[in-house]
Write a structure and sequence with these properties.
Blueprint (H helix, E strand, L loop, with lengths): L1 E8 L9 E9 L1 E7 L17 E8 L4 E9 L3 E8 L8 E5 L7 E5 L4 E11 L6 E10 L6 E4 L9 E8 L8 E9 L9 E8 L6 E5 L16 E5 L6 E4 L3 H4 L19 E4 L1
Parallel strand pairs: 17-18
Antiparallel strand pairs: 1-12, 2-13, 3-10, 4-9, 5-8, 5-10, 6-7, 6-9, 11-12, 13-14, 15-16
Length: 274
Protein backbone atom coordinates (compact mmCIF):
# COMPACT_ATOMS: atom_id res chain seq x y z
CA UNK A 1 0.00 0.00 0.00
CA UNK A 2 1.46 3.35 -1.01
CA UNK A 3 0.43 6.89 -0.20
CA UNK A 4 1.74 10.18 1.18
CA UNK A 5 1.03 12.94 3.69
CA UNK A 6 2.60 16.29 4.59
CA UNK A 7 4.17 17.81 7.69
CA UNK A 8 4.31 21.60 8.06
CA UNK A 9 6.85 23.57 10.11
CA UNK A 10 5.42 27.10 10.34
CA UNK A 11 8.80 28.85 10.57
CA UNK A 12 12.07 27.14 9.72
CA UNK A 13 15.79 27.80 9.67
CA UNK A 14 17.33 28.31 6.25
CA UNK A 15 17.50 24.97 4.44
CA UNK A 16 20.23 24.70 1.79
CA UNK A 17 20.47 20.91 1.52
CA UNK A 18 17.74 19.12 3.46
CA UNK A 19 19.11 16.18 5.43
CA UNK A 20 16.84 13.26 6.30
CA UNK A 21 17.72 10.30 8.52
CA UNK A 22 15.07 7.56 8.54
CA UNK A 23 14.40 4.60 10.83
CA UNK A 24 11.63 2.07 10.15
CA UNK A 25 8.96 1.58 9.16
CA UNK A 26 8.82 -1.34 11.58
CA UNK A 27 5.70 -3.43 12.12
CA UNK A 28 4.65 -3.67 15.75
CA UNK A 29 4.07 -7.03 17.39
CA UNK A 30 0.48 -7.37 18.65
CA UNK A 31 -0.08 -9.10 22.00
CA UNK A 32 -3.38 -10.12 23.59
CA UNK A 33 -4.27 -11.27 27.09
CA UNK A 34 -7.19 -11.44 29.50
CA UNK A 35 -6.75 -9.77 32.89
CA UNK A 36 -8.64 -9.37 36.17
CA UNK A 37 -8.26 -6.43 38.58
CA UNK A 38 -4.94 -6.19 40.37
CA UNK A 39 -5.92 -6.28 44.08
CA UNK A 40 -2.75 -4.33 44.92
CA UNK A 41 -2.93 -1.93 42.00
CA UNK A 42 -0.54 0.53 43.65
CA UNK A 43 2.27 -1.89 42.85
CA UNK A 44 2.27 -3.32 39.30
CA UNK A 45 5.26 -5.58 39.98
CA UNK A 46 4.10 -7.70 42.94
CA UNK A 47 1.58 -9.88 41.07
CA UNK A 48 3.30 -10.66 37.78
CA UNK A 49 1.92 -14.19 37.44
CA UNK A 50 -1.57 -14.09 38.96
CA UNK A 51 -3.64 -13.03 35.91
CA UNK A 52 -3.93 -9.33 36.81
CA UNK A 53 -0.73 -8.24 35.06
CA UNK A 54 0.88 -9.39 31.83
CA UNK A 55 4.41 -8.72 30.64
CA UNK A 56 6.68 -9.50 27.70
CA UNK A 57 10.34 -8.89 26.93
CA UNK A 58 11.86 -7.53 23.74
CA UNK A 59 15.45 -7.40 22.51
CA UNK A 60 16.66 -3.96 21.42
CA UNK A 61 19.64 -3.58 19.10
CA UNK A 62 20.62 -0.20 17.61
CA UNK A 63 17.03 1.03 17.77
CA UNK A 64 15.98 4.62 17.12
CA UNK A 65 12.99 4.17 19.43
CA UNK A 66 11.12 1.64 21.50
CA UNK A 67 7.36 2.08 21.56
CA UNK A 68 4.63 0.26 23.47
CA UNK A 69 0.95 1.13 23.45
CA UNK A 70 -2.35 -0.35 24.54
CA UNK A 71 -4.71 -0.25 21.56
CA UNK A 72 -7.85 -2.03 22.84
CA UNK A 73 -9.31 -2.90 26.23
CA UNK A 74 -12.50 -4.12 27.85
CA UNK A 75 -11.27 -2.65 31.16
CA UNK A 76 -11.84 1.08 31.79
CA UNK A 77 -8.40 1.67 33.32
CA UNK A 78 -5.14 -0.05 32.43
CA UNK A 79 -1.60 1.07 33.22
CA UNK A 80 1.53 0.56 31.10
CA UNK A 81 5.15 0.33 32.26
CA UNK A 82 8.41 -0.16 30.34
CA UNK A 83 11.90 -0.82 31.68
CA UNK A 84 15.25 -2.50 31.18
CA UNK A 85 16.25 -6.09 31.84
CA UNK A 86 14.18 -9.26 31.90
CA UNK A 87 12.55 -8.81 35.33
CA UNK A 88 10.05 -5.95 35.77
CA UNK A 89 10.69 -3.75 38.79
CA UNK A 90 10.41 -0.18 39.98
CA UNK A 91 14.20 0.06 40.02
CA UNK A 92 14.50 -0.71 36.29
CA UNK A 93 11.43 1.24 35.16
CA UNK A 94 12.05 3.83 32.44
CA UNK A 95 8.50 4.80 31.40
CA UNK A 96 5.16 4.75 33.22
CA UNK A 97 1.87 5.63 31.54
CA UNK A 98 -0.90 5.63 34.15
CA UNK A 99 -3.33 8.39 33.23
CA UNK A 100 -6.64 6.94 34.43
CA UNK A 101 -7.72 5.61 31.02
CA UNK A 102 -7.13 2.30 29.26
CA UNK A 103 -5.22 3.28 26.10
CA UNK A 104 -1.79 4.10 27.50
CA UNK A 105 1.41 4.88 25.52
CA UNK A 106 5.17 4.77 26.12
CA UNK A 107 7.96 5.86 23.77
CA UNK A 108 11.69 5.81 24.47
CA UNK A 109 13.98 7.45 21.93
CA UNK A 110 17.44 5.91 21.48
CA UNK A 111 16.93 3.05 23.95
CA UNK A 112 19.99 1.22 25.25
CA UNK A 113 20.80 -2.10 23.60
CA UNK A 114 19.72 -5.20 25.47
CA UNK A 115 16.56 -6.71 26.92
CA UNK A 116 13.58 -4.55 27.81
CA UNK A 117 10.33 -5.49 29.54
CA UNK A 118 6.79 -4.21 28.98
CA UNK A 119 4.11 -4.57 31.68
CA UNK A 120 0.36 -4.06 31.30
CA UNK A 121 -1.66 -3.91 34.54
CA UNK A 122 -5.44 -4.07 34.94
CA UNK A 123 -5.78 -1.22 37.43
CA UNK A 124 -9.60 -1.26 37.32
CA UNK A 125 -11.57 -4.04 35.68
CA UNK A 126 -14.94 -3.88 33.96
CA UNK A 127 -18.05 -5.28 35.59
CA UNK A 128 -17.43 -8.66 33.96
CA UNK A 129 -13.74 -9.53 34.30
CA UNK A 130 -11.43 -10.92 33.13
CA UNK A 131 -11.01 -8.23 30.47
CA UNK A 132 -9.50 -8.71 27.03
CA UNK A 133 -6.48 -6.48 26.41
CA UNK A 134 -4.51 -5.78 23.22
CA UNK A 135 -1.15 -4.02 23.17
CA UNK A 136 1.57 -3.43 20.58
CA UNK A 137 5.36 -3.28 20.97
CA UNK A 138 7.98 -2.26 18.39
CA UNK A 139 11.72 -1.61 18.40
CA UNK A 140 12.27 0.71 15.44
CA UNK A 141 15.63 0.06 13.79
CA UNK A 142 17.32 1.06 10.52
CA UNK A 143 15.64 2.44 7.42
CA UNK A 144 13.55 -0.42 6.00
CA UNK A 145 13.23 1.20 2.57
CA UNK A 146 9.43 1.36 2.78
CA UNK A 147 9.00 5.12 3.28
CA UNK A 148 10.65 8.45 2.58
CA UNK A 149 10.58 12.08 3.69
CA UNK A 150 11.38 14.86 1.20
CA UNK A 151 11.27 18.64 1.24
CA UNK A 152 12.54 21.78 -0.53
CA UNK A 153 15.36 24.17 0.23
CA UNK A 154 13.95 27.38 1.74
CA UNK A 155 15.00 30.77 3.08
CA UNK A 156 15.22 31.29 6.82
CA UNK A 157 11.87 32.16 8.41
CA UNK A 158 9.83 30.53 5.66
CA UNK A 159 7.54 27.58 6.38
CA UNK A 160 8.92 24.12 5.57
CA UNK A 161 6.59 21.48 4.18
CA UNK A 162 7.95 17.93 4.28
CA UNK A 163 6.25 15.20 2.29
CA UNK A 164 6.00 11.78 3.94
CA UNK A 165 5.45 8.93 1.49
CA UNK A 166 5.25 5.19 2.03
CA UNK A 167 5.01 2.00 0.03
CA UNK A 168 4.64 -1.09 2.20
CA UNK A 169 2.89 -4.23 0.89
CA UNK A 170 2.38 -5.41 4.46
CA UNK A 171 0.05 -2.54 5.34
CA UNK A 172 -2.82 -4.92 6.14
CA UNK A 173 -5.90 -3.79 8.03
CA UNK A 174 -5.31 -4.01 11.78
CA UNK A 175 -1.52 -3.69 11.62
CA UNK A 176 0.58 -1.05 13.40
CA UNK A 177 3.78 0.46 11.97
CA UNK A 178 6.33 2.80 13.53
CA UNK A 179 9.07 5.05 12.21
CA UNK A 180 11.36 7.89 13.19
CA UNK A 181 12.99 10.65 11.16
CA UNK A 182 15.42 13.48 11.82
CA UNK A 183 15.70 16.61 9.66
CA UNK A 184 18.65 18.97 9.23
CA UNK A 185 19.36 22.10 7.26
CA UNK A 186 22.58 20.90 5.54
CA UNK A 187 25.29 18.25 5.68
CA UNK A 188 27.08 20.09 8.48
CA UNK A 189 23.87 20.23 10.55
CA UNK A 190 22.06 16.93 9.91
CA UNK A 191 19.74 17.09 12.93
CA UNK A 192 19.06 20.73 13.79
CA UNK A 193 15.49 21.02 12.46
CA UNK A 194 13.29 18.35 13.95
CA UNK A 195 12.92 14.79 15.16
CA UNK A 196 9.57 13.15 14.53
CA UNK A 197 8.15 9.85 15.82
CA UNK A 198 5.73 8.56 13.17
CA UNK A 199 2.99 6.03 13.99
CA UNK A 200 0.81 4.36 11.35
CA UNK A 201 -2.40 2.43 12.07
CA UNK A 202 -3.87 0.67 9.05
CA UNK A 203 -7.66 0.93 9.19
CA UNK A 204 -8.54 0.50 5.50
CA UNK A 205 -10.36 2.81 3.12
CA UNK A 206 -14.16 2.78 3.23
CA UNK A 207 -15.98 3.72 0.03
CA UNK A 208 -19.57 4.98 0.05
CA UNK A 209 -21.80 4.09 -2.88
CA UNK A 210 -25.47 4.96 -3.21
CA UNK A 211 -28.20 3.66 -5.46
CA UNK A 212 -31.24 5.93 -5.40
CA UNK A 213 -34.60 6.22 -7.08
CA UNK A 214 -35.78 9.79 -7.62
CA UNK A 215 -39.10 10.92 -6.23
CA UNK A 216 -41.58 12.34 -8.67
CA UNK A 217 -41.70 16.10 -8.41
CA UNK A 218 -45.45 16.17 -7.73
CA UNK A 219 -47.66 13.80 -5.74
CA UNK A 220 -51.34 13.83 -4.96
CA UNK A 221 -52.32 15.12 -1.53
CA UNK A 222 -52.48 12.35 1.04
CA UNK A 223 -50.60 9.82 -1.10
CA UNK A 224 -47.92 7.71 0.57
CA UNK A 225 -44.67 7.72 -1.40
CA UNK A 226 -41.94 5.13 -0.88
CA UNK A 227 -38.40 6.30 -1.53
CA UNK A 228 -35.60 3.70 -1.41
CA UNK A 229 -31.92 4.55 -1.10
CA UNK A 230 -29.38 1.74 -0.76
CA UNK A 231 -26.08 2.77 0.87
CA UNK A 232 -23.20 0.33 0.69
CA UNK A 233 -19.58 0.30 1.80
CA UNK A 234 -17.53 -1.34 -0.94
CA UNK A 235 -14.15 -0.37 0.53
CA UNK A 236 -11.69 -2.18 2.76
CA UNK A 237 -12.36 -0.52 6.12
CA UNK A 238 -15.18 -0.14 8.63
CA UNK A 239 -17.37 2.93 8.30
CA UNK A 240 -19.58 4.53 10.96
CA UNK A 241 -22.85 5.49 9.28
CA UNK A 242 -24.58 8.58 10.61
CA UNK A 243 -27.74 9.40 8.64
CA UNK A 244 -30.06 12.22 9.67
CA UNK A 245 -33.51 12.79 8.19
CA UNK A 246 -34.33 16.45 7.79
CA UNK A 247 -37.90 17.05 6.60
CA UNK A 248 -37.39 20.78 6.15
CA UNK A 249 -34.43 20.35 3.83
CA UNK A 250 -35.16 17.09 2.04
CA UNK A 251 -38.93 17.20 1.74
CA UNK A 252 -40.01 20.81 1.52
CA UNK A 253 -43.74 21.19 1.17
CA UNK A 254 -44.51 17.69 2.50
CA UNK A 255 -47.08 17.60 5.27
CA UNK A 256 -47.01 14.94 7.96
CA UNK A 257 -44.20 12.69 9.10
CA UNK A 258 -41.36 11.18 7.15
CA UNK A 259 -40.71 7.59 8.21
CA UNK A 260 -37.48 5.69 7.65
CA UNK A 261 -36.90 1.98 7.32
CA UNK A 262 -33.28 0.91 7.49
CA UNK A 263 -31.60 -1.94 5.67
CA UNK A 264 -27.88 -1.74 5.00
CA UNK A 265 -25.97 -4.03 2.67
CA UNK A 266 -22.36 -5.08 2.17
CA UNK A 267 -20.08 -5.53 5.19
CA UNK A 268 -17.81 -4.35 6.73
CA UNK A 269 -19.82 -1.55 8.32
CA UNK A 270 -21.37 -0.34 11.55
CA UNK A 271 -24.50 1.73 11.80
CA UNK A 272 -25.92 4.31 14.18
CA UNK A 273 -29.21 5.92 13.23
CA UNK A 274 -30.28 9.31 14.50
Amino acid sequence: MGSEDRLLCAESLEVTDLQVELAGLTEGTVYTDSLSTDPTNGDPFDNLNDGTVTFITVTVNSAARLVAEIVASEAPDLDLFVGTGDTPSAATQVCASASGIALEYCNINDPADGTWWVVVQNWQASGTPPDDVTFVVAAVTADAGNWDVTGPNIAGGDPLTATISWNEPGFDIGTYWYGDFVLGTDAGHPDNLARVNANFVVVGTPVIETDTTDLASAQASGEVVTFTMAISNTGTGDLDWNITEDNDTLMRGVQGDLSMTTALVNSPQRCWWC
